[in-house]
Amino acid sequence: MTNTIYIHQPEKIISFTRLPNFLFEAPSFKPLSNEAKVLYAFILRRAELSRKNGWEDEYGRIYLYYPICEVVALLHCGRQKAVNTLRELQYAGLVEIQKQGCGKPNRIYPKSYEAVPNTDFKKSGCGTPEG
């Protein structure tokens, strides 16, 4: 007998992260890297926790913190790749990043799909941190 668990067997409680279909279907998001799509899914997951914990700014917008070191650990990448991936989401209009200064982590405001203009951000010259 092996320790392999097959689908038909009762599953242990497993946590899942939802990956929105529009990231793959909407023409404006097809150029996004898979890392950016995965990171956005995790940002949305954290946004739900922020909502439950009442993390809102003075305008009622939900925000969260995702330190670069945690993005590095999530994506199994280097620091610069993590920074570039966050910027990719910012340039795509999926998040707003607000610097706080004084060594405090940046606030990340996730945006909904409906709030993003229907433009191809890579072709507009704003799709990469260098653009």
Characterization of this structure:
The protein has a domain at 32-115: Arc Repressor Mutant, subunit A, CATH 1.10.10. The protein is built from four helices and two strands. The chain has helices at residues 22-25, 34-52, 68-75, 79-91; strands at 95-98, 107-110. Helix 2 packs across helix 4 and helix 3 (68-75) crosses helix 4 (79-91). Residues 119-131 have low confidence and may be disordered.
A few lines on this structure:
The protein is mainly α and 131 residues long. It has a domain at 32-115: Winged helix-like DNA-binding domain superfamily/Winged helix DNA-binding domain (Arc Repressor Mutant, subunit A, Orthogonal Bundle). 34% of the residues lie in helices and 6% in strands.
Fold blueprint:
Elements: H1 22-25, H2 34-52, H3 68-75, H4 79-91, E1 95-98, E2 107-110
Antiparallel strand pairs: 1-2
The largest sheet has its strands arranged as 1-2
Biggest sheet statistics: 2 strands, antiparallel
CATH structural fold name of the domain at 32-115: Arc Repressor Mutant, subunit A
Q: Which word captures the global form?
A: globular
Stretches where pLDDT falls below 50 for ≥5 residues? 119-131
Query: What is the annotated CATH architecture of the domain at 32-115?
Result: Orthogonal Bundle
CATH superfamily of the domain at 32-115: Winged helix-like DNA-binding domain superfamily/Winged helix DNA-binding domain
- Subunit arrangement of the protein: single chain
What structural class do you assign from the helix and strand content? mainly alpha
The total of helices stands at 4
